[in-house]
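Lecture 7, part B: from sequences to assemblies.

Below are the input chains for today's worked example.
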Amino acid sequence: MKPRLILVLVLLVVAPVALLTVLGARIARDDREIAAHRWRDLVAARLVAVDDQVREFLQAHIRPFTEYSWDEAETGKVSDALTATGLVRQLFVIGDDGMLMFPKLSAESSTKDREFFQRTTELWRSRDPLFHPPDAIASPGDTPAMDPSPDATPFQQTPLDSGGLRLASGWYTWHWSDGLNFIFWWRDGQGHTVGIELERMRLIADIVGVLPDTAPEEAASERIVLTDSHGNTLYQWGNYESRDEARPVYTLPLSPPLSAWTLNYYGPPDMLAAAGGRAVWFNLAAGGAAISIALAGLALYLYRESSREMREAARRVTFVNQVSHELKTPLTNIRMYAELLEDELAGDPRAARSLGVIVSESQRLSRLIGNILTFSRRQRRALALHPKPGCIEKTVRAVLERARPALEARGMKVCFECADGDQAAFDADALEQILNNLINNVEKYAADGGYLGMRLCRDGDMAILTVEDRGPGIPNGEYERIFQPFYRLSNKISDGVTGTGIGLALSRELARLHGGDLRVIHGDGGAVFELRLHAPVARGVAT
Amino acid sequence: MRIKGLNGQLSRSSAAQYVIGALILACAGAVAHSREIEMEAGLSTPVVKAGAPRTAYVKVRLRGFDIEPGERPPVNVAIVLDKSGSMAGEKIDRAKDAAIMVLDRLNPRDVVSVIAYDTTVSVLVPATKVSDRETITDAIRRLRAGGNTALFAGVSKGAAEVRKFLDKERVNRVVLLSDGLANVGPSAPENLGELGASLFRSGITVTTIGLGLDYNEDLMVLLARRSNGSHLFAAEAGDLAKKFSLEFGDVLTAVAQDATAALDCASGVRPVRVLGREGTVEGQRVTVDFGQLFSNQDKYVIVEIELPARAAGEEINVGEVTSRCLNLISRKTERHKDRLAARYSDSDDEVDRHTDANVMVSVVRQIGAERNEAARVLRDQGKIEEARRTLSENIPWYVDNATRFKSEQLRVDGLETMKDLDHLDDGAWRERRKVMVEYQNAQQLQSLGYVE
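Predicted structure of the full complex, as C-alpha cells:
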C-alpha cells in the first residue's frame, strides 16, 4: 500500500510539472524566435547605419570635386590641387568628342601618368560608354546601351545637382592589382567628362578613420568586420572574438560604389537568448519551480498525514494486542476455577446457572482475545496453520456444545447435519476460531431468527460446512465488503451491537490459509456462509 | 670645397671663383641667423670634358636654420602603439614609458592623440591639446597587450586623429610602433607605401619604429619613406626610449615643411633620374618632395643628368633650380631660385680640379646605397654568394672615393658595408637586414637627425 501511495504522490507532482515544462518550453521557443528576429532586425539596422555613415563620408568628400570645371590652361593647377587632397590619385578629362584631353600619353609623360595608363589600359579598351561614345553621355537620362566589360560594373548616372543645370556623375569600379579601384566622374558645364581616380589605400584608410573604434573596457558583445571582395578583412571593431569557423550573424554589402565590400556582424550565440528569451525562460522556470514546490509540499503533507494515521493504527493494534495478551492468563485462570467449581457445586441449580454464565462469558472473552491475537499475527504475517489428523465432526460438535447454552438462552434452536464423519487433516484451532466467529455473529445479529443450522459435507479433498440463520440477511452489495477488516454493516442490524469488526476478515483469512475459502451464498431468508477447507481424508492414519 | 653656381655665371678664372665662393659663404654666414631656409645647388662637374655627352649630377640641398628651444612650431602627433600579443611583458612597458616620455616633452600648444591596435583599434586619447597630462598618461598606463596586428587600421586611425587638427603650420605626424607582421587588413608593403604617399600629399608624415626582429621592415620603411618620414629600428625594448627621443628630437625642431625642389633643365640637357629619393621626372622638369626640414639639418637630392656634347671652351646653361617651403617660424612661404651653368674643357686635369667634392661625396653615397640595396635584394632571394660579391665590390667604391674626396663619411659607409658583409649568414642576417634598411632609409632621406 505504501509504495503505491508514494507512486501516486510522485505522479501528482511530476505530471503537472512535466506538462508545464513542455508548454513553457514551447512558449520560450516561440518567444526566442521572435526575439532572434527582432535582434536580427536590430543588427541589420546597425549595419545599415554604418553603411550610411560610409556613404555620407564619400558624398561629403566627393561632392566638392564636382565644382571643378575644366579649363585647359588651369589643368596643372587643378590636378595638383586635387592630388594634394591625398584622396585623388589621378585626374583625367575626356572631351565632348570622346577624346582623352588630359593626361596626354607621350614620350615625355611622367612616370605617374605612365602608371595611370598602365592601370587603366583595360578601361580604354573596354566598350564602356564612359570612355568612348560622347553621345551616350551627352544625354544623362538615357541608359547606356552598351555592355560593360566583364570586369567593370556598369557605371551609374545619378543627377547630383537639382538647381537648373543637370550634372551627370557616377562611379566606375574595376579590378586591378588585386583589388578594387575607383573612378568618380562628372560632367562639367562644357560637355567635358572629368574623372578622378581615387587613391585606393587612402580611401580604405579614410573609411577606417570614419568607422568606430574599439573601447578596450567595453563588453565583448559584438564584432563588426568589413571585408573586401576577396573576403579579406579591411577593418573590424568590437571586442567579441569569434571562432575562426564562425559564420556571421548578419552580412550587408555596402552601397555602391563599395558594393563589393561587405559588413559582417558577429556576436555570441547566446545573444539570441539574451535579447529577450532569457527573461521568458526565467519567468517560466520561476513559475514552474513555484508550482513544483507547492505540489511537492502538498504531496509531502498528504504522505505524512497518511503515514501518521498508519502509525497510530499500528500503535493501537499493538496496544490492544498487549492488553489482550495480558488478559489471556487471568481469563484462563477464571475459566479453570469456574469449571472446578461447577463440579463441586453440581447439586445446586442456582449456582450451576451462575457458573454456566461465568464459564460461557469467559469463553466468549477468550474467543475475542484469540481473534485479536490471531489478527495481530496476521498483521505481522506470522500466521501459520498446523493441520493435524482429526475428526472435523467432533470439533464442530464440541464448538456447538460450548455455544449451545448461550444460544439457547436467547431462544435459538440449533440444528447440525453431518454427512462426513471421516478422519481428515486439518487445523482444529483454526476451524474452532472460524466457527466461533460465525456462531457469534449469528448470536449477535440473527438471534431474532431463532435458528442456527449447520451442515457438514465433503467434496473430494474439501470439507464444506454451511452455517445458516434466519436473521435479516446480508444485502447483495455487501457480500464481499463484510470480509474487510474493521468493516461493519452500517444499518439497523449493527446498531447497538458491539464488535471488533475483525471476525469475518480473520475467518476468511484462516480459511484461505487452509486452502479453502469463506463466502456468503444466497439463501432463502437469512445469511448463509459457506466455509470450504482443504482437509483431505486421512485414510492410513489410525484413529 | 664648395662651388656655388650662383646666377649661372661661372668665372673663367678659378681665382675669381674662390672670391665669389668666399663672398657667398660670408653672406651665407651673415644671414645664417636670418631665420630663412638656405638653398644650395651645385653641379658635380662645373667643368665638363668636351667632345661627347657627359653624365653629371646636380645636388640641391636645403638647410634648416637654428632655433631656440622655446620657439619651435606646435606639433600635431598621433602615437600609434602596437599592443598585439607579442608586445606582452617588457616591450609594452617600455613602449608606454617612451610614449609618456614623449608626452613630457610636449606643451599645451601641441596636439596629441594616442592609438593602440591589436586585432582591433582603440583610440585611447582622441586628438587633444596636451593640457590634461594626467588623463593621457592614465590611458597609456592602462594598456594591456593581446591579439593580432591590425597595423593598417592603426595607421588609418592615427591619420584620422591627426587630420582633425590638420594645419599647415603644425608638424603633422603619425608615429607608428610595431613589433610584428601586419596580419589584419591590407598588409602588402606596396599598399602601405601607397597610403604613406597619399598621407604625405595631404601633409602628414609617418614615422615607423620597428621593435625586435619579427616586424616587416620592408612594409615599415616603405610606409615611412613614401611619406618622407624616418624609419627606426629598435633591437631591444630598452632602445625604444632612445629611438622615440631621436624621432621627437626631429619633430620638435622642425622649422619648415612642404619643402619641394624642382630642376628645370635647359634644352639639350636631359634629366635622367633621381637618386635615392622619390622624384618625378616630367619632360625637362624634375620635382622632389622633401617634407619637413629640421633645425640645423640638411636635406638634399641628387639628380642625374646628361649634358650635351660641346666643344672645349663653350659654356652652357644647365638649368634652373627652384625650391619652395613653408617656414614654420615666420609662417611664410619661402621661395629660392638658383641657376646652374657648365663650361667645357679638353683638360682632364682641369675637369678633376673643378669637380665638386661635396656633391661627389653625396653622389657616391647614393650610388653606394643603391648597390647595397641591390645586394639586400639578392640576399632576400637566397643568393648569398652574389650578395657577398656585390657588397665586396662596393667596399672599394666607398674606400677609394673616401680617399679621393677626403671624406670621413664615405669611410664610415665603407665600414658599415663591411659589417653587412660579415652578417649575411642565416644567424645574423635577420637583425642586420633591419639595420641595413634603417641605415639606407636614413641615408637616402637624410632623416634621423643625420647631418653630412
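Note for the exam: The CA atoms of residues 7 and 13 of chain A lie 10 Å apart. Keep this in mind when comparing with the next example.
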